[in-house]
Amino acid sequence: MAEGERSPRQLLTIGVVGGLIGIYLANYLNSTTGTAWFSFFAGLGAVLAVFWGADAVRRVASYGLGTGVPSIGLLSLGAGQVAVLLGLAVAMNYSIHWAAPIIALILAAIIGLVSGVMARRVIKMNIAIMERSMMEIAMAASLIMLGFSTTIAGGFGFDLIMKYVVASGFIIAVFIVGGMAMLHPFNACLGPDERQKRTLNLALSTGFIAMLVAGIAAGAINGIQAAVPTMIIAIFGWIIYYLRFFADTKQDAAAVLSTGLLPKEEEVA
Amino acid sequence: MDPQMMVELGALTLVGAAALIAGVAEDLESDVGSQSNPNSQVQLAPQMGYLHRLYNKAISGEPASYPFYAAIGASTALAVLSITGNSSLIGVFFALVAGAFVTSLIHGVYATTSYMGRLASQSRFGQPIYMDVLRTHTPVLMAHGFVANFSVLLLTWVIIAQHFSPFPFVVLAFIWGIALGGVGSAVGDVHLGTDRYYQDRPYGSGVNAAHSGSVVRKAESGLRNSIDCAWFCSKFGGPLTGLGFGLVVYLHFWKEVVVTGWWSVLAGVIIVVIFIIMNTYLERYSRQRYGTYKAEAEE
């Protein structure tokens, strides 16, 4: 870990705590007020989960996964999706509605761990941090899925999610848009001079794009109440972090030229 | 012929045409961005000392990025339809346009991040980021992406409206996105990867590991950019991809419309067998005509 980087533990805390708080706030504020104005909290929670998940992808993929970056991201999203639906169903079955996100998180950890063990012990991918990373990515994925699903449906009840997110088909948009938000930052910044700060600023920017899409989808379900606050926050968040990513790029790149021919060999240090 | 079938055949033609356009636009879009197969070579070039002015857009591979665009477009179109209602045809049309428009904006943003991100991560090799490349290529990508995505949304909508499929709109658009990306990657890349980036190597020799990243960087006049690649591929690779995807979509629904029930599965098997025979014959013919692949001459 280089100087000035955020540690995995710090990011895990941000992702888990931030993600859960966002999802719970959205659900309970919406249900107590009887509106959908607070759906954006779940989106913000999911953006923090993207922040954490992107770093987990970054750590495991820097072992030279290359084209495997999207694969590992989508695999974990699948694990997260199964965990979310199973978690919601288990919570409904035992009438512990409030515990659904936590159950989903634990199930995601188990599924992630199993796929990590399979990857390392059975397929024999020689990556030391495989189990832990798969676990973290699947957990982050479950929070992303649940966060954006809650934004769309207005709450995380099993019936709500089934009716408004699964049956309407938005689940697949949440899956791929959330997945891209998590796997794209490292995939885009792949290379020997990759830097955590730049990658994570990009992660926040893609996370806010995913939140924008969730906001648009929420508009189809809950109308202006859900869509407008979510979309406004997402657009502002995206602008801030895209500009930060751009500033980091200018700082890190060999040169940013408005135009020009290729540098001659003696000009390249 | 009963009227229902006439309508279905009309819808089938529209779906096939939309698929053809989607295929052409998709392939040219991925060529401008050197996505998928050629991407690793463009990515590798600066590391091997070949600095370039090519666009490098890795929004995952095409089979993952196209469902991503299609899902965004379909969600947006549904959100617009939830306001306007889907009773009027022109309303549906504009909703699909809105979906494809929002998608192309997000596509453009993602494309810029991967161009800048990857080149900034290669700073030790001295590869500069050219802002004019970013400014000229991104709108081209977005425009081709718009056409491809609109066509996917249109064909999905026709399929849903004609009750050809039990899936919800967003899921079906996603599935056709995967199919489009898959065809674009499988058919289109063949005509970009080695044809355009390794023009100085004998055809069919494959790329020797020693030549990895040694992409063609100079054009007929001046320096090669990725829009040149789209120009090159628009002659053959793009239309061929369109034909590929158009045939996949058209033949799939043709057998559903014309042959019903379980017989359509049998028809599908027959179509696949015919293609296998045709491909075998074609490969045998070209091997006999042009000989076996030549080994690359030692330099």
Task: Name a few traits of the molecule.
heterodimer; A: 269 residues; mainly alpha; 9 helices; 76% helix; globular; B: 299 residues; 10 helices; 1% strand; flat
In short:
The complex is a heterodimer of chains A (269) and B (299). Helices cover 76% and strands 1% of the residues of chain A. Chain A is mainly α and 269 residues long.
Topology:
The complex is a heterodimer of chains A (269) and B (299).
Chain A: H1 8-33, H2 40-61, H3 68-93, H4 100-122, H5 130-153, H6 158-166, H7 170-188, H8 196-222, H9 224-252, E1 256-257
Helix pairs in contact in A: 1-2, 1-5, 2-5, 2-7, 2-8, 2-9, 3-4, 3-5, 3-7, 4-5, 5-6, 5-7, 5-8, 7-8, 8-9
Chain B: H1 3-32, H2 39-44, H3 62-84, H4 89-120, E1 129-130, H5 131-161, H6 169-188, H7 193-197, H8 226-233, H9 237-258, H10 263-290
Helix pairs in contact in B: 1-5, 1-6, 1-8, 1-9, 3-4, 3-5, 3-6, 4-5, 5-6, 6-9, 9-10
Q: Would you write up a description of this structure?
A:
The complex is a heterodimer of chains A (269) and B (299). Chain A is an all-alpha fold and 269 residues long. Chain A has one domain. Chain A is built from nine helices and one strand, in the order αααααααααβ. The longest helix of chain A has 29 residues, at 224-252. Chain A is globular. The two termini of chain A are 26 Å apart. In chain A, 58% of the residues are buried. Chain B has 299 residues and is an all-alpha fold. Chain B has one domain. Chain B contains ten helices and one strand, in the order ααααβαααααα. In chain B, α9 (237-258) runs antiparallel to α10. Chain B is flat and about 65 Å long. The termini of chain B are far apart. β1 of chain A pairs parallel with β1 of chain B.
